[in-house]
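Quick start: load a record and inspect it. Here is tRNA(Ile)-lysidine synthase:
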Amino acid sequence: MSARPPWTSLHAQIHRTLRSRHLLPRDRRLLVAVSGGQDSLCLIKLLLDLQPKWGWFLAIAHCNHRWRDDSAANAQHVANLAKTWAIPFYCTTADRSLPSEAAARTWRYQALSAIACQNDYQYIVTGHTQSDRAETLLYNLMRGSGADGLQALTWQRDFSDRLQLVRPLLEVSRHTTAQFCQDMQLPIWEDATNQNLQYARNRIRLELIPYLQNNFNPQVEQALAQTAELLHADVEYLEFAAQQLKHQATHPQDPLKLNRHILQTAPLALQRRVMRQFLCQALDRSLTFEQIEKLTALITAPNKAQTDPFPGGAIAKVETGWIYLVLS
Ligand SMILES: Nc1ncnc2c1ncn2[C@@H]1O[C@H](COP(=O)(O)OP(=O)(O)OP(=O)(O)O)[C@@H](O)[C@H]1O
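Running the structure step on this input writes:
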C-alpha cells in the first residue's frame, strides 16, 4: 500500500478554496498547465494529493515556446514528471517564432484550449498566484487601465460553453509556492528569462514589488490582490447592469440602433460600458478608450453629428433620438 501524502496547511487552504468558490467540481477531467516552474509544480502536486477526495481525472499539458536553448529539455523534464505520477501528458511546440510575451500567451491559451477540446477536458487549470495578480494589477495600472484591467486575473473564466480556465492559487504567494516545492522536494525547472530585466513584468517582480514591500507595506502583494478581488465584484455588477441597459436602449427591430434618451439618463460609467459592449459586438473586435469615448460623446451630441470611421470603416451617426452604426 502506498503511503498517504502529507497534508499541509496549504493542502487544507486549497481544499477550502475549491469548496467555497466551487472552482473544480468533483469527478471532472482537469488539464493542468505545467511550465515546470515553482507555481505550476506546486499546483499539480496539490491537485494530485487532493485527487482522492475529489475524484478528478488529471492530466498535464506543457507548451514549448521554443524561446530558450533549454526549451526541449524543459518539456522533457515535465514529461518525466507526468510519467512518474502516471498521468497523461500533452505537449505542443510552437511552429513559428513568437515575437512577444503577449503573442506567446495568446498562442499558449489557444494551444491549451485545443488540447482540452480534442481530449475532452472541461477545465484548464493554471498556477497563477497572488503575486502574479499583484504584478498584473500594477502593470495594467501603469498602462491606464480602468477597473476591468485592474481586476487582474480572475478565479475562473469561460473559454467556451464547455471549457473553463480556473486559477486555484490566487490567494497563495510566490513565497509560499517556493517553500512548498522545497518541502515536497519538487524538482523546479528554473526559467532563466524570469531574471531578464528587459521585460517590464520582471522589473515589476524583481524591483518594484520589493521596493514597495520595503518602503511602504510588507504585505503589498496581499493588499493589491485584495484590490483586484474587490474590483472584480464591481466589474461583474457593472457589466451586468450595462447589459440590461443596452437591451433597453436597443431598437427592437434594429440591433445597430441605440435610443439616446434612455442612455442620457444613465450614469457615465454605464454609458461607457454600453458603448463598449455595443461596438465590440457589432465590429467583433476590442476597441481603444478613445474610440469608445467618441461613441459615448454621441449620446449628448447635436443632431447629425457623427464619428470618424472605426477600424474596418464603420461610422456612428446621430439621427434625432437615435445613434446608429453604419457598417462599411
Ligand atoms: N510553457 C507553459 N506550458 C504550460 N503551462 C504554462 C506555461 N507557461 C505558463 N504556464 C501556465 O501559466 C501559469 C502562469 O504562468 P506565467 O505567469 O509565466 O504566465 P503569463 O504569461 O504571465 O500568463 P498570463 O498572461 O495568463 O498571466 C503557470 O502557472 C502555468 O500554469
